[in-house]
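Mods, move this if it's the wrong board.
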Amino acid sequence: MHGYSADKQAYLTRLRRVEGQIRGLQRMVEDDSYCIDILTQVSAATRALQAVALGLLEEHISHCVADAINTGGPEAEAKVKEASAAIARLVRS
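Not the wrong board. Structure tokens:
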């Protein structure tokens, strides 16, 4: 069971909302909308995806990483490294 399982529907709802934002962006480009308006919507979609990513990261750390640390051994170290790598990817994006 994944850490986000309890909130799976909420994540799916948020991702569907982002999907709608992306479709809206496509329409804006097709309709030759003003550049700044499109950029504003790109920024909103980006923030929405970042919020999903941060939520998933928090769930991963509080569930998967915490469980591995409680169990101990090499799995704990691997989970911490995995979480650190995920954080590094989010920071770069």
